[in-house]
Amino acid sequence: MFEEFTLERVELPDATLRVRHGGSGPPVLLLHGHPRTHTTWYRVAPLLAEHHTVVCPDLRGYGQSSKPADTDDHGGMAKRALADDMVALMAHLGHRRFAVVGHDRGSYVAFRLAMDHPEQVSHLAFLGLVPIGEALERANERFARLWWHWFFFGQPKKPERAILADPDAWYGNSPEKRVQMGAENYADYYAAVHDPATVHAMLEDYRAGLGIDREHDAADREAGRSLRCPTLVLWPLFDDEEELYADILSIWRPWAADLRGHGLRSGHHLAEEVPEELAAALLGFLNGG
C-alpha cells in the first residue's frame, strides 16, 4: 500500500499521530471515519498524489494514533480537538493552507476544521452525512431505525462490553469484506477493532457527538457562521443518506454559499468501493473543474 508514501509518527502538542504522506503539489488532507484507519484511502491517495501532496493520518483515538484521557464532557474526542490536531499536523509538514476531504466521522472533523480555522482550508469535501446538529434535529423514527448505533454508542460502558465480547460479529468481518477492503487495509482495520483502547476512543467520538460537538454546531449557527471555502458533498447512493435526508444539498446550503455535489454508485465506504470515480470527482473539484 501507499507506494512512495512516507509513514511516520508525528508528536503534536496534544496527540501523537500515525500519518502517511506523499505526492507533490497543492496539499490535501484525507480524514477517515469509523471504524477505519488512514489505510482506507490506499486506493484513492495514489491517484490524488499524481497532482497533490496527500496527507492521510489516523485520527486521534483511532488506529495507531494516541488515545486521549477521558473527561466528563468527552472533550478529548470532540471534533474541535481533532481538528486542532490536524492544523498542528499540517503545520508540522509545512502546509499552512490545504484542502480537506472527510468521510463518515472524519467529515465532522473536516467540518469543524473549516469552521474553526477558515483561513487555512482552501477546499472542503464531505463524503456523505450532514452536520451533527442537523442530523440530531432530524433524528426521527427512520433515523433511529437505521442509525440507532449513534445512541447506543453514546451510552456509558455497555457498548465497549458488547463490541469487545465479539468484534468480528459486531463489525461483520468476513472473507468477502477482506477482498473488498484489500488484505493490508483489512489487517490494519482488524487490529484496530480488536484493540480495547481504540474501541473505547471510537465510542468516545460518538459520545462527544451527542454533546459537546452538537453544542459547537449550535453556537456556530446562532452566531451566523458558515463555511467560507468551496464545498463538495458526495454521497453513496447504496447507503442510507438519501432515505434519511432526501435532498442532502438543501441541508448543506445554509452552511455553504459555494456548494456542489452528487451521489456516487457505491455503498458506505466510497474510497474502497469506487476509488477511481471518487478520485476523479475530487480532482475535478480541487483543480477547478
UniProtKB/TrEMBL annotation:
Pfam families xref list: Abhydrolase_1 (PF00561)
- Molecular function terms, GO-annotated: hydrolase activity
Write down the superkingdom of origin: Bacteria
Cited Gene3D superfamilies = alpha/beta hydrolase (3.40.50.1820)
The record's keywords, sorted A to Z, are: Hydrolase
| UniProt key word Hydrolase | yes
Q: Ranges for the AB hydrolase-1 domain?
A: 26-151
In its UniProt entry, what is this protein called?
Answer: Haloacetate dehalogenase
* Species this protein is from: Deinococcus hopiensis KR-140
